[in-house]
Amino acid sequence: MWRPVRSVLLPFAVAAALSGCATSEYIAEKYACRTEWYEKMPPNIVTRMVTRHKIVKEKIGERCEWTQEYDLDKRKTVSHRKCVDKIRETQRPYTDWVQVDLNEDLRDDRIEACAVQACVALYGNPKCEAVPSPEIR
User: Fold this and answer.
1) Confidence of residue 23 (pLDDT cuts 50, 70, 90)
2) DSSP states of 16-72 as a string?
């Protein structure tokens, strides 16, 4: 289940992350390179054990306060005890299993290099920015 969801959402997530600072031409080149490199170097998913931490709340005691008030109906002083637990938050390690793509880092580097190379070849710069033509007077 994990592999198909990631392969469907990955291009959208990358496009959304890049769209803030990249030109549409750069995004198009990177998408073309991504298609090429996913065929050359498909995901190699393995399951690995990792140690994570969770916050656990522990009761370490309680703090109590006494209050007194005069009860008119009973015609005497009544004492009330209100207690609040003292809580300490600590981190506890636990073992978890995660799925990792062993080819992801290398493939992402190759995709980036491919996109830069295509931009330099087509636009003369690594960002695929169109260079304005000089005005003819």
Assistant:
1) confident
2) HHHTTTS-HHHHHHHHHHHHHHHHHS---EEEEEEEEEEEEEEEEEEEEEEEEEEET
